[in-house]
Structures are given as structure tokens and as C-alpha cells.
Amino acid sequence: GDSVTQMEGPVTLSEEAFLTINCTYTATGYPSLFWYVQYPGEGLQLLLKATKADDKGSNKGFEATYRKETTSFHLEKGSVQVSDSAVYFCALTPTSGTYKYIFGTGTRLKVLA
Amino acid sequence: DAGITQSPRYKITETGRQVTLMCHQTWSHSYMFWYRQDLGHGLRLIYYSAAADITDKGEVPDGYVVSRSKTENFPLTLESATRSQTSVYFCASRDRTPQGETQYFGPGTRLLVL
Q1: Which residues of B touch A89 (CB under 8 A)?
Q2: Mean pLDDT over each residue of chain B, to the nearest integer
Q3: Residue A98 has pLDDT above 70, yes or no
Q4: pLDDT band at residue B95, thresholds of 50, 70 and 90?
Q5: Is A72 within 8 Å of A5 (Cβ atoms)?
Q6: Which of A32, A43, A105 sits opposite B107 (nearest CB)?
Q7: Measured between alpha carbons, how far is B53 from B66 in angstroms, rounded to an integer?
């Protein structure tokens, strides 16, 4: 079945460091891919998304490119800030048009000043 | 306020009690969802609803009941709470556009069952 695999956390970085959080997926067809962010004590917020191969989603300095050939959607940011400390979830929804979202287990990011 | 609201935000209850978690959305999205979030499991779907009066089970429905008499409300009831239902519960709704679809989440309800 469809699945999403994220790198284990926590990820600890110094401010202004480069961030990569790996996400790979298994799905038939062409799913839509998402990154959600969850700040402490809050719900999930959509960070960015991509709906077809080679699309690049971007928001707030974060980017992720839909790579069909490697079934990946890695999240990157060139210079992280303390305020980026949160849990990041990769997710997909299948192309069949069903309601289902498949979430990864989340990766906690901690940015130190 | 536009969006999804959940109430209560925090709840402590005892084993065996009935608890209802409320969810309200202002967008008139057809689809709504209930998830639970637990360490090591990410988000797991409990129930979902495609429209008013249409609901169906998700991945982990046992011990939960839902209803949807109005499009904007989707309450989740724990009929007889158990300690294993201690979790953070998130309600979500789905927006579909020609550009694709997105789920939007409420702020969550943190439930502790003693």
C-alpha cells in the first residue's frame, strides 16, 4: 500500500545552517505531496505542496521538489532560524481521488541560537 | 473566525466516562476527518465524513463514534474512555480546487484519560 518514510529525528542545527529533511514515498500513479509543520502546542499547518513530477513547492524559505524517479520529496531550507523549530510531516494523497492522506511519522527540528 | 475550531482544547477524564470532542469549520468543505496523534505513530485516521450524514471508518475507529448532522460540525465521541485513548486529537477538512487539494487542521484537543 501507499506509504511515506521520513528520516528519524530529532535534527539539531545551529541558526543559519542548511536544512534537509528526507522524505520518500511509495504510491501508485502520481500522488500529490505535502509538507506540514507543527509548532509546539499547535495543529498542523500546510507548509508547501506539489501535485506533479518536477514541481517545486516553496514557502517561507522552504523548498521541496517532487522527484518521481527517486520517489522523493525532500524538504530544504538554506538558512534556518530558531523560529523554525517544530515537527515536520511529509504526506501524500493518492491520485485515485480518495480522501486518504498518508502521513510520515514526523521529524522534529531544533534550531539553536 | 474563519477556519477550523476544536473544543475543548484540553480535557482530563476518567476511564469509562463518555467524552465528546467538538469540531467546527467555516468553509463548508464536504470532507472532514478525525485523526489521533501519538508518539511513534504520526497521525492515524479515526473516522472521516464525505458530507452531512455520510461517515465511514478510518484506520483506528474502535471505541469512537462520530456524527455529522450539519456540514460544518463533526463531533467525535469516546463512548467509554480508556487509557489507550489518551492522545492528541485533530480535526481536519479538505479543500478541493482545480489546482489540487489540501487538508486544513484544527488546533487539536489534548485528552488525558486517567
Answers
A1: 42-43
A2: 93
A3: no
A4: confident
A5: no
A6: A43
A7: 10
How would you classify residue A47: left for phi > 0, otherwise alpha for psi between -120 and 50, otherwise beta?
A: alpha
Q: Which residues, 6 or more positions from B89, have their beta carbon under 8 angstroms from its beta carbon?
A: B6, B21, B34, B35, B36, B37, B46, B76, B108, B109, B110, B111
Tell me: the pLDDT tens digits for A35-88?
999 998 888 999 999 988 999 999 999 999 999 999 999 999 999 999 999 999
Choose the closest CB to B101 out of A36, A93, A103.
A93
Q: Which residue has the cell 478525525?
A: B34
State the Cα angle at B100 between A87 and A80, rounded to 5°: 30
Find cell 452531512 and name the residue. Answer: B52
> Residues of A numbered 25-54 whose beta carbons fall under 8 angstroms of chain B's beta carbons: which are they?
32, 34, 36, 42-46, 49, 51
Contact status, residue B47 vs residue B56, Cβ threshold 8 Å = yes
